[in-house]
Amino acid sequence: MLELTMASVSGATGETAGMLMADAPSDPGAVLRVGRDASACRLTTPDDWLFVSRVHLEFLCGPEGGWQVTWLRGSQAEPSSEVLLKVGEYAQALTYGGTVALPRGGSGEIVVRDRTAPRSVNVGFYHEG
Questions:
Q1: Residues 25-50, mean pLDDT to the nearest whole number
Q2: Strand pairing of 43-44 and 57-61?
Q3: Can you give the pTM of this predicted structure?
Q4: In terms of DSSP bridges, do strands 119-127 and 106-114 run parallel, antiparallel, or are they unpaired?
Q5: Are strands 31-35 and 43-44 parallel, antiparallel or unpaired?
Q6: Rg of the chain over CA atoms, in angstroms?
Q7: Residue 14: which pLDDT band, with cuts at 50, 70 and 90?
Q8: What is the 3-state secondary structure (H, E, C) of the chain?
Q9: 3-state helix, strand, coil in the chain (%, to 5)
Q10: Please, are residues 112 and 52 in contact by the beta-carbon 8 Å criterion?
């Protein structure tokens, strides 16, 4: 099982807009998506947050029940955001179009930051072992 929680954070004071949740069983091929397009994504950001693509992050369960996250390439050659994976004290920048495996039996956070304004989308995850 992969559980996701998402909060939209904006402003210098870090105001948080509603918390959304989604989960999926660790069945091969299971997918959870985060982005602006409600028809394709289980977790959606505000429509006017253009630093987030229609479908920005894709969580995919592999054949062995392990999950990975991909920062999907959008229509622009260069992204207007940056994406960071945090697990405990460890932090790793995701590359645009890149994929990284999530730790099994672990938790962490993926932060999508707007490069032009003080706002972010924070997606917490818990991957049951």
A1: 94
A2: unpaired
A3: 0.93
A4: antiparallel
A5: parallel
A6: 14
A7: low
A8: CEEEEEEEEECCCCEEEEEEEEEECCCCCCEEEEECCCCCCCEECCCCCCCCCCCCEEEEECCCCCEEEEECCCCCCCCCEEEEEEECCEEEEECCCCEEECCCCEEEEEEEEECCCCEEEEEEEEECC
A9: 0, 55, 45
A10: yes
Structure tokens at 43: 């977790």
**Of 104, 127, 120, residue with least CA distance to 34:** 120
| pLDDT higher than threshold 70 for residue 123 | yes
The type of residue at 114 is D
> What is the reported pLDDT for 29?
97
Q: What is the pLDDT of residues 91-111, one digit of tens each?
A: 999 999 999 999 888 899 999
So what's the pLDDT on residue 52?
Answer: 94
Distance of alpha carbon 35 from alpha carbon 123, whole angstroms: 11
Residue 33 to residue 99: CA distance in whole angstroms: 14
**Is the pLDDT at 13 greater than 70, yes or no?**
no
